[in-house]
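agent> Task received from the user: take the single chain below, predict its 3D structure, and emit structure tokens. No templates, no multimer pairing.
agent> Plan: (1) validate residues, (2) run structure prediction, (3) serialize to tokens, (4) report one or two observations.
agent> Step 1 OK, no nonstandard residues flagged.
tool_call: predict_structure(input=
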Amino acid sequence: LSATGGIKVDHPKMSN
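)
tool_result: status=success, residues=16
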């Protein structure tokens, strides 16, 4: 997962 907050393709829905 990305430490940026999930803005990657890993969790685009949880990027909020």
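agent> Step 4: summary for the user.
DSSP finds no helices and no strands in the chain.
agent> Done.
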